[in-house]
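Review form for a predicted model. The reviewer records the input and the model, then writes brief findings.
Reviewer: anonymous (R2)
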Amino acid sequence: MKVRPLGDRVVIKKLEAEEKTKSGIVLTGAAKERPQEAEVVAVGPGGMVEGKEVKMEVKVGDKVLYSKYAGTEVKVDGEEYTILKQDDILAVVE
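Model under review:
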């Protein structure tokens, strides 16, 4: 099954959180921070959203940083994704 977002929405797949600190300390599940880095899986068409013209700035395959509690988590074919508005994406990682 394929997910196609509408309007200015973007579908992302979260990247795994680091399990070790830079100094080599292994983190337990509770100590890990919620990941804020993800890969863009699908992008809506943009266009007119709530009376404003929206140009989509991200594309499929981009690695992005997004707001910590943004979006709605969904499960499709056993895979977990987050659907959020483009405004919730803070930056593209290059």
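Findings: Residues 9-58+66-86 form one domain.
Further findings: The first strand starts at residue 9 and ends at 14.
Recommendation: see findings above.
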